Amino acid sequence: MKPQKKRLGIELLEGRDVPASFGVAWTDSRHLTLSFVPDGTNAYGEVSDLTTKLDAMMPRNVWRSTILRAAQAWAQGANINFGLVGDGGQDFGVAGANQGDGRFGDIRVGGLAMAGDALGEGVPPDPVLSGTLSGDVFFNTSHTFTSKELYSVALHEIGHALGMAPSVKRNSVMFNQFRGNNHLSGGDLVALRSLYGYRGPDAAEGPRGNGAFTRATPVEVPSSFKGKTPLITYGELYSRTDVDYIAFKNLVGYAGQVTLRVQTAGVSLMTPRLKVYDAQHKLVGEVLGTNPEGDSIQFTIPQTVDGATYFLRIDAAPKAVARIGRYGVAITFDGIKQDDSGGLTLAQILAGPYDAIKSSDLLDLFEHPDLALYNQDDGSDDHGGGADDLPGRTGPLALARFTATGSLTNATDVDFYRIRSGQASSGLAVTLVATVRTLGPNGVAPIVEVQDQNGNVLPIEILANGNGTYTVQAKGIQPETEYLLKVSGGSTGNYALDAAFRGQPVVLQTFASGSVSSGQPASYKLYVARTQLFGFTLAATGPAGAAVNVTIKDSQGVSVFTLTALAGQTISGLSAFLAPGEYTVAVTSVGAADPVTFALKGDVVSDPMGPRPDNTKLAPLYPDPNNPGGYLYPNGTPTLIPFLWVLL
User: Fold this and answer.
1) SS3 318
2) How far apart are CA 534 and CA 110, in angstroms?
3) What gap in Å lies between CA 283 and CA 280, rounded to an integer?
4) Does residue 362 contact residue 353 with C-beta atoms inside 8 Å?
5) Which range is least confidently modeled, 109-113, 310-314, 538-542?
6) Which pTM does this prediction carry?
7) Alpha-carbon dihedral of residues 567, 572, 577, 580, nearest 10 degrees?
8) Which of 604, 532, 611 is nearest to 117 (CA)?
9) Rounded to whole angstroms, how far apart are CA atoms 101 and 28?
10) Strand partners, 646
């Protein structure tokens, strides 16, 4: 059978909601992390040189703070936090979870020498194709940036890292041509909140808020607590003027030293201030954070009053640039022997995604973290009738999003959750996408099943399965209807669940399909008008031992990408950044004379921000003279999409 001609560039990326493009949110946006990769980190055959090149353009503290300010601009507009963490220098795209990999940040920032048509590239969240490359941002280190220009490009690329699509609005920071936009437009905020919802008071605020002594949030104390481990609590400053009061009661019979710690380092970019008061609301002491990348501050009360109440007042430091974000609090009774945390440091517990678990579970994190199980249900939700109701976080489109933290206590344990789809008038929800992922330190990799409200199992499509993440989609979802999610795993451990109703299902483009045999390969041309990073899946069907190979070569005949799938396999891979130009794609059979059927699918997994519109020397290739902003390829095809696949 002759391979069928498949053409890329039929529809606008802006109009799509697929993981390989845009419109998909991070699983847990409240606990995102960001890291700057060290120079020398491998990125698909190239090495990152971000630090060396930007150091030559401006002081390091200037370019780092510029990029972090751009991240914070997005974070303060919706239900998002960025915590800055270290980066171990592992290869970009190395196998691992797309969120929560402790070796580096969820969003990794690097630099590569790119073609002149791009100032930067951003990869949106992608459970299907991108893996740990999800959210990664690259700056074109061949370009000389000013700090103002760097900020604009960082806003654009971090927007892509959050799943924001390109915009046709010239005042949007997501407009693909560089215009120096440095403020989120109203349209940018609407699109952002449709993915992540509004930032609002955290659970500790209560119905009246906790902005005064009389409304202070009490620290929950486990019944078995003896003071041998720190008391832990979490909070969030949700506006630039928000102030939180937290109250704790000293142990009965204890009058020794108590150390109070507030940490935003690795949690958010907010710079905190802590004031400590006694039971009569008299100021005991104050400490200010100074690190604009997130800080950890502490104050020690040298001698306390037995059983007395103390108050913590937490807000942003007076001169802080970032005044909004999440924080963790630790209260340590220094005069009592402290138990070893079993491998987890106090900083890790304060930074980790543990604010949704009970105080007794937090105690377990210190005493025996490898055995700790979160939010155990004692079998109460092992059937649909006992399902836990999850409240939805709803954005302007009323496409609700749901999260939960739970555990499986044995090989036969299951957990049921009940969720409800949004209103049809606010955007018909036709697809449910659900993800379960392992949650350490005692994690399990479960699976999730979708049922209707009567317990009937719905057909699902598996989008991702591996590296501790399992993502499925169920189509044909009805508005204003209840559905059940069944989590099971066959082992013991903790997990995080995220579910969202979306307006469109996940669909990967078919680039090429057909059959090939020995001596009868299939050949294609790939035209790239702007620098792109592609994600591919290759499926092969044929006799045992047969395989299909796809190789992409540039105009000089140099191989820039190769992927091989055995018969019966579907594998995925990421290309290098393909610079503008003409490429030859060869699909060949391996190890069999009989025909082997193949399907090559995928999408672009990055979107470049272009140069200034007046710089014609750096313009993309193949401009369409009759359609500004469009492309006209050598075979005569006009399109608005900056790449085209053609059968030879």
Assistant:
1) coil
2) 18
3) 9
4) no
5) 538-542
6) 0.82
7) 50
8) 611
9) 13
10) 525
> Which of the 8 DSSP states describes residue 93?
T
Q: 452, 401, 464, 451: which is closest to 429 by C-alpha?
A: 401
Q: Whole-angstrom Cα distance, residue 639 to residue 621?
A: 13
Is residue 59 packed enough to be buried (19+ CB in 10 Å), middle (13-18) or exposed (0-12)? exposed
For residue range 300-354, list pLDDT tens digits in order: 999 999 999 999 999 999 989 999 999 999 999 999 977 655 567 889 889 988 8
pLDDT band for position 80 (50/70/90)?
very high
pLDDT digits (tens, 9 = 90+) for 613-629: 555 555 678 988 888 77
Nearest-angstrom CA–CA distance, 384 and 558:
57
Residue whose pair of structure tokens reads 């980190």 in the numeric block: 41
Look at residue 75 in the predicted model and tell me its pLDDT. 95
Tokens 């529809």 -> residue: 11
**Quick one: DSSP state of residue 68?**
H
DSSP letters spanning 134-202: TT-EEEETTS---HHHHHHHHHHHHHHHTTPPPBS-TTSTTBSB-----S--HHHHHHHHHHH------
d(CA 472, CA 184): 32
The arrangement of strands across the sheet holding 401-408 comes to 401-408, 493-502, 431-438, 469-475, 461-466
pLDDT tens-digit map of 288-306: 999 999 999 999 999 999 9
